[in-house]
Amino acid sequence: MKYFLMNQQEAEEVLAEKSLTIAVIGQGRMGLPISVVFLEAGYKVIGVDVNPLLVEKATKGEIQLVGEPGVEEGIKKGVTEGRYFCTLSHEDAIKQADIIIIIIPLIVDEDKKPDLTPLTNLMDQIGSVLEKGQIVITETTLPIGTSEEIFKPILEEKSGLTAGNDFGLGFSPERTYSGRVIEDVTVRYPKIVGGINRKSTERMAMFYETFVQKGTIKMSSAKAAEAVKVFKGVYRDINIAIANEFAKLSEGMKLNFYEIRDAVNSEPFGNIMLPGAGVGGHCIPVYPHFLIENASKIGLDLNLVKTGRVTNASMAKHVIEKAEKGLALFHRKLSDSKIVILGLAYRGNVKEHRYSPSLEIIKLLKKIKANVILNDPFYEEEEIEKEIGIKFQKDTKTSLEKADCIIILTDHDEYKNMSLEEVDQLARKPYVIVDTRNIWKKDKQEFTENRLLLKIGI
Ligand SMILES: NC(=O)c1ccc[n+]([C@@H]2O[C@H](COP(=O)([O-])OP(=O)(O)OC[C@H]3O[C@@H](n4cnc5c(N)ncnc54)[C@H](O)[C@@H]3O)[C@@H](O)[C@H]2O)c1
Asked: What is the 3-state secondary structure (H, E, C) of 213-273?
């Protein structure tokens, strides 16, 4: 008998003995660290991925995940102890599992609608081999209602079983920040759990409580659990949008946004975020579209959410315009200048660039046929040339040589550790820097004989 159908005492025993097998479908930036969390808790883990190279490396314990502490060692240890292996076969993994965890990406299509096809295909595959007593938990962020309204009917139809009765089904979001996933899951936050019925929620909570120090928050439904993650992401997107509007207003009114922000945030109700070139990663810029889709189905127009997206997306153009105006002061044009982009990743010290504002900025600069060099110490030349098709220079200092305009888009430590004087030595004087991450904390726009330093919000 499998975990979901065991009586309370049996379930407590298998959790105490850690004699359960967990299938983790998706072995990417999130799937690998959560596999390590389950391994460290003492469970056996079968990773599943569609990427043959990744599967081959993971099975040998030779995985590489830049900037995610504990993962490479954790997988290696799991392999050595015979408690981890990775496969391309969903069927093999699901057949052996007590708990099936799904952590593959869900993105939006060209019309900005969530494309559920990879997940519904996966549910088809799971449903056709699902057995009584298994429990299926999605950790990928979902539009509200997906587990109950879309996944449940597929799994029931394919398996001939009844969700909540024969097998468990629920949602538990990954509330993590890449770069510290293991710590976030095990130490930092309580785990949100929401099943399609009470029994599913209870069994999910019992499992997570064996390794999450802050315990679980049991939601009244899978829907409510799905809403937690989407609401949080959208809340953040809108707050960044208002920071971006304040920054543009400050620029226009010759105010220093950062001075005002510090003063506002000196009281507890003030929490203005930082402005920038936009919002990246496959979470924050995507989740508003999940909510917009949810709202449209009940005839509601989420104007604020839509405007937040438009505002944040407009920042790429704003950055280019700033660079353009700066260069014009030196009687130069973007199209005949050497422009160096510092940072492809959407956030400092990570190697992740999905929906990164850098991509949009590169696209706009390519349109005007500018001479652009991209630098990001986290990437290799082959990766960039293949995927982005732009000149790349891995060594930061070399990339800055004879630059006319430098646009800083990511606050990697390597950039933060560089002084303006060091940059002066390398660039073609006078030059323009657009520092969108406020790396060099200056009170005002700085115009010296060597350079013009521009920021968002000043
Ligand atoms: N990255 C983050 O910071 C973050 C934070 C919180 C939550 N999340 C959630 O995690 C999800 C996954 O993010 P990620 O960063 O791990 O993505 P990722 O792209 O790094 O990894 C996804 C992995 O899933 C594999 N995959 C895709 N389809 C598959 C299938 N049908 N079967 C098996 N494997 C499949 C891919 O080959 C890839 O290795 C996101 O969509 C989001 O909902 C991500």
From this structure: CCCEEECCCHHHHHHHHHHHHHHHHHHHHHHHHHHHHHHHCCCCHHHHHHHHCCCCCCCCC
CA pair distance 105, 86, nearest whole angstrom: 18
Answer for the pair 152, 200: CB distance below 8 angstroms, yes or no.
no
Chain segment 62-73, per-residue pLDDT in tens:
998 888 999 999
Tokens 């620029």 -> residue: 251
pLDDT at 445: 64
* CATH fold of 3-220: Rossmann fold (3.40.50)
Contacts 24+ apart (CB under 8 A), 119-124: 119/146, 119/151, 120/150, 120/151, 120/154, 122/25, 122/90, 123/150, 123/151, 123/154, 123/155, 123/158, 124/154, 124/158
Q: Which pTM was predicted?
A: 0.94
Q: How many CA atoms lie within 13 A of 222 on its CB side?
A: 28
Instruction: Identify the residues whose C-beta falls under 6 Å from ligand 1.
Output: 25-31, 48-51, 54, 103-106, 118, 122, 140-141, 174, 176, 178, 281-283
Q: Are 379 and 342 in contact (CB under 8 A)?
A: no
Separation of CA 293 and ligand 1 centre (Å): 21
Model confidence pLDDT, tens digit, residues 1-42: 899 999 999 999 999 999 999 999 999 999 999 999 999 999
Atom of ligand 1 nearest to the CA of 104: 24
Phi, psi for 295 (deg, rounded to 5): -65, -40
- Cα distances from 410 to residues 76, 379, 416, in angstroms, run 31, 13, 10
Ligand 1: which of 282, 290, 352 to mutate, judged by most atoms within 8 Å of the beta carbon? Answer: 282
> Is 147:228 a contact under the CB 8 Å cutoff?
no
Where are the domains positioned within the chain?
Answer: 3-220
Q: Which amino acid residue places its CA nearest to atom 9 of ligand 1? A: 140
Buried residues in 51-78 as b, exposed as e (16+ CB within 10 A): eeebbebbbebebebeebebbbebbbbb
Q: Which of 24, 27, 29 to mutate to test the pocket of ligand 1 (most atoms within 8 A of CB)?
A: 29
As a whole number of Å, the end-to-end CA separation of the chain is 65
CA of 374 to the centre of ligand 1 (A): 26
pLDDT, average across residues 385-406: 93
